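anyone seen this seq b4? input:
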Amino acid sequence: MEIVPYDKKYLERFSYNGIERDYISVEEARAKIEFNASLGECYAGLIDDNPVMFCGVIPLHSGVLQAWLYLNTEADKNSHLSDLLTFGKYLLWDKRFRRVQTLCISGSEKAETLLKHFGFKFEGILKKFLDNADMSMYALLPQGKK
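predicted toks r here
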């Protein structure tokens, strides 16, 4: 997977079929990606020049980032997840932060497994938080920071 800076041309070709597709339509995913891209850093993951992933970070407070990811099933392969993990480490650890947090729909086993693989720790559940769905909150704190 090639990871490149966000460009709207990739978003127009993105057909979301990822982990949370039962909760989020293609149109909703595209709108959320475009909104997130307007708030912070955004990147696209391409396989054969086709967009299969969008990710980024949004600064919330000094030293606090909100991470987000939309990952299609085509990118849900070990070789591509390895690329994503390497990029994620660059994206998150190359920044000066004291906390990176993210949300996923509670009970989404694949999403929660991916977050744990990145080193995120479960912090709790936000009831009826997003689109009336319960969301699991995860956070990543750099080594040595509390």
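The first helix runs from residue 8 to 12. Residues 2-140 form a domain with the Aminopeptidase fold (CATH 3.40.630.30). kinda curious what u guys think
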